[in-house]
């Protein structure tokens, strides 16, 4: 996800370099767009990390349930 943020920032930076100082409104809009893209990329990364953790926890819980049913000595998963 870091790469996506970096690439988006790089592309927008290159685009901003082409903006003339004569049109500050366009430059501000581009900077706002860059900030929005960066924020959304970070949010997507956090959501993916949360989902992966939730799946891992669910797998661990099921593993522990199975070991409880089998009455194994080692209950850790």
Brief descriptors of the model:
single chain, 77 residues, mainly alpha, 2 helices, rod-shaped
Quick gist of this model?
The chain is an all-alpha fold and 77 residues long. It is built from 2 helices and no strands. The longest helix has 47 residues, at 24-70.
Mean pLDDT: 84
What radius of gyration results from the CA coordinates? 23 Å
Q: What is the strand content? A: under 5%
Query: What is the makeup of the main sheet?
Result: none
The count of DSSP E runs of length 2 or more, i.e. the number of strands, is 0
Helix-residue proportion: over 70%
Structural class: mainly alpha
pLDDT < 50 runs, ≥5 residues: none
Summed up, the helix count is 2
What shape does the CA trace take?
rod-shaped
Distance between the termini: 29 Å
Helix-strand sequence = HH
Work out the count of structural domains.
Answer: 1
Protein model, in words:
With about 80 residues, the chain is mainly alpha-helical. The chain has one domain (about 1-70). The protein is built from two helices and no strands. It has helices at about 1-15, 25-70. Helix 1 packs antiparallel against helix 2. The relative contact order is 0.11. The mean pLDDT is about 85.
